[in-house]
């Protein structure tokens, strides 16, 4: 047991950092998943992903709760998007066992690059909160975004939180802080759907996942406080940083690995 302690400390630290990043802009899996693969070299990928989701769902839920207490959260957008995301995340998880995802893997870096360029060119992108839709139009667009990103998260996953933030700003006129808050509600739905799938199929290391969940929640609480304290400008900068890292990581995985 003593020889395992360093591994636990590394995973705990990774979960804390992942929770912090995820709470602000998404992308915590960039830290948590490689750490799990490194510390669990004999585990099958599904078990790594399932354990990651167990830790992540607690952190994402904590972030959603904290944001809802301190930011005026657009529930009329968040709830339809979350409902659609939950259903389509299941469909995505089912589809991944039947359809090759190589095309998505190779396309993803270019989509993320387009997101980064668009955000950089539009200097005021996400700086002002000016909601654009109400009523049935708001619900329809929310369902389309939630369903599409939910399916993607179940099918593949990297960058889900960042995509949600970008789309909520682009199609709803939210600022970065409000978009991040709404994205957490949707992320809870996609994570929970995936967690049910992995739990049913026996691909979760429960003790390790729950230990990491505690650290993930701690990081999430700090990340939420930083986002609220420093506002949309801070979220925008971290968003661009995480998207840049995602471009490099997904590009490497798709073309060089």
Automatic annotation (TrEMBL):
It is found in: Cell membrane. Its main location: membrane. InterPro entries: TM_pro_TauE-like (IPR002781), TSUP (IPR052017). Pfam families: TauE. The keyword ATP-binding does not apply. The chain crosses the membrane at residues 73-96, 140-169, 176-198, 204-222, 234-252. It is a multi-pass membrane protein. The keyword Transmembrane helix applies. Coiled coil: none annotated. Belongs to the 4-toluene sulfonate uptake permease (TSUP) (TC 2.A.102) family. PANTHER family: MEMBRANE TRANSPORTER PROTEIN YFCA-RELATED (PTHR30269:SF0), TRANSMEMBRANE PROTEIN YFCA (PTHR30269). This is Probable membrane transporter protein. The lineage of its organism: Bacteria, Pseudomonadati, Pseudomonadota, Betaproteobacteria, Burkholderiales.
């Amino acid at each position: 047991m003593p020889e395992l302690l360093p591994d636990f400390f590394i995973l705990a630290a990774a979960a804390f950092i992942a929770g912090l990043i995820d709470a602000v802009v998404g992308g915590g899996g960039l830290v948590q998943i490689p750490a799990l693969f490194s510390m669990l070299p004999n585990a099958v990928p599904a078990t790594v992903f399932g354990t990651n989701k167990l830790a992540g769902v607690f952190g994402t839920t904590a972030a959603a709760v904290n944001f809802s207490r301190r930011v005026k959260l657009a529930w009329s957008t968040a709830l339809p998007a979350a409902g659609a995301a939950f259903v389509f995340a299941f469909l995505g998880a089912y589809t991944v066992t039947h359809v090759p995802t190589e095309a998505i893997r190779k396309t993803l870096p270019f989509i993320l690059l387009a997101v980064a360029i668009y955000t950089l060119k539009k200097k005021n992108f996400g700086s002002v909160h000016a909601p654009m839709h109400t009523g049935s139009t708001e619900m329809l667009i929310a369902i389309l975004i939630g369903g599409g990103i939910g399916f993607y998260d179940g099918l593949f996953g990297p960058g889900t939180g960042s995509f949600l933030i970008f789309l909520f700003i682009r199609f709803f006129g939210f600022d970065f802080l409000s978009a991040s808050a709404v994205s957490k509600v949707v992320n809870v739905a996609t994570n929970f759907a995936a967690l049910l799938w992995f739990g049913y199929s026996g691909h979760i290391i429960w003790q390790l996942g729950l230990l990491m969940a505690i650290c993930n929640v701690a990081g999430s609480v700090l990340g939420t406080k930083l986002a609220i304290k420093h506002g949309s400008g801070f979220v925008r900068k971290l968003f661009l940083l995480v998207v840049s890292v995602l471009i490099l990581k997904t590009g490497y995985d798709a073309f060089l690995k």
